[in-house]
């Protein structure tokens, strides 16, 4: 890379510290919306439509959409229909995904960055897609173990959140699986990971930020681990579409288990156990309140096996697609000891996330 090319690359690179602060602000603003929704009818729908209008106006100002009026009207009507179909309990999550995606795409456009190129999103062959789905199920086993361990020390605030019911499965899958997978992977394994540098530092910092974003200790525990796993898969395959599918499979399987819990298939997964260890719903507390150390050891073994399977399938995908090593190695070499340094804003945003997690643990029941 020449000096001019490197300078242009640095100018186009998104400032991770500012980006992180903006993310946290968006999270908090969106989380406060239900308060106003109780006072103003259809408030979240109105905000969602305003976000779409702002996105259309921004792209029109950049002269990027020739038929922007038609696209804007169709999007406006389609978004209104989706908000009509989405249950009230899901509207905040839906609005958050929409707002963050709009923010990311506007930021990328303002920096003349192609999300597809910047985040390394490439097409996958059908066998690779299948391998990524199986790897996502393996990640679920590993994350379930970590979640079970975390429940020994913290409360699970997500349990019951995905109680969608069979009739609401498709909407639940959209709100909790498809949109978060796309939004969070582009945000954390795409922009933040690449912005810091495709290196071990980028892997660890982006994973920590991904965990802190959940703002409760139970989710932080396995979200950090998932971030590391997804980041390592990305470093193996150099294709963000792989981690999007992994993430979508993980979240989608959770929605599936909640929506169809009375069916034979879900009962099979829920009751699937080896030596008393339930692969998809581990629990380590005994009836007397003590910890079953034998189940912990068995669970750790299966979590490691599932983790090994995840990386095995990632290696298969890289071999099938014949990508990953050369491009990522070149990028890693360029970003060794890169320009990113955490500043006061970065640490403040992290501290706010930790503070919310502590307050949640102490006062939310």
Question: Can you put this structure into words, describing what you see?
Answer:
The chain is mainly α and 365 residues long. It has two domains: 9-113, no CATH class; 119-365, no CATH class. Helices cover 73% and strands 1% of the residues. It contains 15 helices and two strands. It has helices spanning 3-12, 16-37, 43-61, 68-85, 91-110, 115-118, 126-150, 169-196, 200-212, 217-237, 240-259, 264-271, 293-321, 325-334, 344-363; strands at 273-274, 277-278. It has a two-stranded antiparallel sheet with strand order 1-2. Strand 1 (273-274) and strand 2 form a beta hairpin. Helix 3 (43-61) packs antiparallel against helix 4 (68-85) and helix 10 (217-237) crosses helix 11. The chain is globular.
Task: Characterize this entry briefly.
The chain has 365 residues and is an all-alpha fold.
Note the beta-strand portion. Answer: under 5%
Major β-sheet strand ordering = 1-2
User: Which blocks of ≥5 consecutive residues have pLDDT under 50?
Assistant: 1-8, 332-337
Return the structural class. Answer: mainly alpha
Query: What number is the mean pLDDT?
Result: 86
The rounded distance between the terminal residues' Cα atoms is 55 Å
Query: How many domain regions?
Result: 2
Provide the helix percentage: over 70%
Major beta sheet, specifics?
2 strands, antiparallel
How many strands in all?
A: 2
Overall shape: it is globular
Order of helices and strands: HHHHHHHHHHHHEEHHH
Count the helices. How many? 15
Provide the gyration radius in Å. Answer: 21 Å
């Amino acid at each position: 890379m020449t000096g001019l090319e490197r300078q242009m690359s640095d100018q186009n690179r998104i400032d991770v510290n500012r980006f992180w602060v903006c993310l946290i602000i968006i999270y908090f603003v969106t989380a406060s919306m239900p308060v106003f929704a109780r006072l103003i009818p259809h408030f979240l729908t109105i905000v969602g439509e305003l976000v779409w209008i702002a996105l259309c106006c921004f792209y029109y100002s950049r002269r990027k959409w020739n038929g922007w009026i038609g696209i804007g009207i169709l999007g406006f009507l389609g978004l209104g229909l989706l908000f009509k179909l989405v249950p009230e309990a899901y509207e905040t999550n839906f609005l958050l995904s929409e707002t963050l995606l709009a923010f990311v795409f506007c930021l990328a456009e303002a920096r003349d960055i192609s999300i597809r190129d910047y985040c390394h999103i490439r097409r996958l062959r059908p066998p690779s897609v299948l391998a990524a789905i199986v790897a996502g199920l393996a990640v679920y086993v590993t994350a379930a173990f970590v979640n079970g361990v975390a429940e020994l020390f913290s409360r699970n605030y997500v349990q019951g959140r995905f109680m969608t019911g069979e009739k609401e499965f498709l909407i639940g899958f959209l709100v909790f699986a498809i949109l978060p997978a796309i939004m969070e992977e582009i945000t954390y394994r795409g922009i933040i990971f690449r912005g810091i540098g495709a290196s071990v530092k980028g892997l660890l910092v982006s994973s920590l930020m991904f965990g802190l974003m959940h703002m409760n200790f139970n989710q932080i525990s396995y979200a950090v681990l998932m971030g590391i796993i997804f980041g390592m898969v990305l470093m193996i395959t150099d294709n963000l579409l792989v981690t999007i599918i992994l993430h979508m499979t993980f979240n989608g399987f959770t929605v599936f288990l909640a929506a169809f819990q009375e069916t034979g298939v879900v009962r099979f997964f829920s009751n699937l156990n080896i030596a008393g260890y339930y692969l998809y719903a581990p629990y380590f507390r005994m009836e007397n309140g003590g910890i079953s150390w034998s189940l912990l050891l068995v669970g750790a073994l299966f979590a490691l096996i599932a983790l090994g399977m995840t990386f095995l399938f990632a290696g298969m995908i890289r071999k099938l697609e014949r990508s990953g090593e050369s491009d990522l190695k070149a990028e890693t070499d360029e970003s060794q000891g890169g320009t990113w340094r955490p500043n006061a804003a970065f640490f403040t945003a992290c501290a706010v996330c930790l503070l919310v997690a502590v307050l949640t643990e102490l006062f939310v029941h």
